[in-house]
Amino acid sequence: MSGVKQFRHPEVGNFDLSFEVLHLPEANGQRIMTHMAEPGSPAEAALALLRATGTAVRDTPKQATGR
């Protein structure tokens, strides 16, 4: 499974990350989920800023934020 997930952060706003779920063979249902920003995208810039400031990224559904 793969797709795009939107994240909202109070410091950098909204940004989209591509994701892919990798199913591990013979791992009793365990999976690895990866998130990626496109090179040169606003998402890449947002992650770089968060990395520089040490701010965590949390998945906040739009419905829960009231924005």
How is the secondary structure organized here?
Blueprint: E1 2-9, E2 13-23, E3 31-36, H1 42-53, H2 62-65
Antiparallel strand pairs: 1-2, 2-3
Number of helices: 2
The H/E string reads EEEHH
Which secondary-structure class do the elements indicate? alpha+beta
How far from one another are the termini? 29 Å
Q: Measured on Cα atoms, how large is the radius of gyration?
A: 14 Å
As laid out across the biggest beta sheet, the strand order is 1-2-3
Proportion of residues in β-strands: 35-45%
Description of the molecule:
Residues 63-67 have low confidence and may be disordered. The N and C termini lie far apart (29 Å). Helix content is 24%, strand content 37%. It has one domain. By secondary structure, it is of the alpha+beta class.
Offer a few descriptive terms:
single chain; 67 residues; alpha+beta; 3-stranded antiparallel beta sheet; 3 strands; elongated; disordered C terminus
What is the gist of this entry?
The chain is of the alpha+beta class and 67 residues long. The protein has 2 helices and 3 strands. The N and C termini lie far apart (29 Å).
